[in-house]
Amino acid sequence: MTFRGPDDFARPCVPSVTSSGHRVALLTADGVRVEAAYEPRAGSRIPPPGTPAVVLAHGFTGALDRPGLRRAARVFAQRAAVITFSFRGHGGSGGRSSVGDREVLDLAAAVRWARSLGHERVATVGFSMGGSVALRHAALYGRERAAGGGEHGGRTDAHSDTVVAVSAPARWYYRGTAPMRRLHWAISRPAGRLIARYGLGTRVQAEDWDPVPLSPVDAVPMIAPRPLLIVHGDRDAYFPLDHPYALAGAGDPRSTELWIERGFGHAENAARGELLERIAHWVCTRD
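== Alpha/beta fold hydrolase ==
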């Protein structure tokens, strides 16, 4: 496998990948600049043959430098190269959050970057909103498009080989829990968007979805035969257990697994090292 530098969709912040990785600004298909970071597998400088890359997608109000995502990155870096990034409207990225719609383009840019760096196997691991994005991304960027070459073919293809959704919703507009009612208020009201911007560092678009994007549960059947892991906690305050059961039930049983974790709350901030290590092992042992 030949090591290659960032493709023309990425602008490097340092001249080359080092043992400590580097940061770039990725340009998405719709022209939004997204901050991203690359961390080689622990102990390596460039991708050795067969080393997978894991792209981590944070939840709403998260970002590249938030402690929960950094903790997850450290765990995954023991087994694979890791790419982290901030979704549009979050952290140092441009644009405004569409709360799971256009974010698919952000994840696609990160996956393309991973392949441009020489990684032939790329897994996506998303948390909460990032989990819904990982599911929809996998449905929209399939392997069959990579095999066809052209715009989506070759080393810069944006498809994922393995998918993990942690604490992800199954459907849109869910308001069945108090945290989700607060979130919907924050993204749908001008006062809420101001609080999100100045209190949580998250810039949210004012426009409603038009059209409504493919729902996570409708995206799941389109992922097979790629391996899919659904992880959810029995203490998740945002999405009750009917969400992961619906997602898993929509998947191909030959390639879909469901883990219901006792005592686990919600997304990357609640994920302990032991759970992250098991997910990393699962990802890196898939064919």
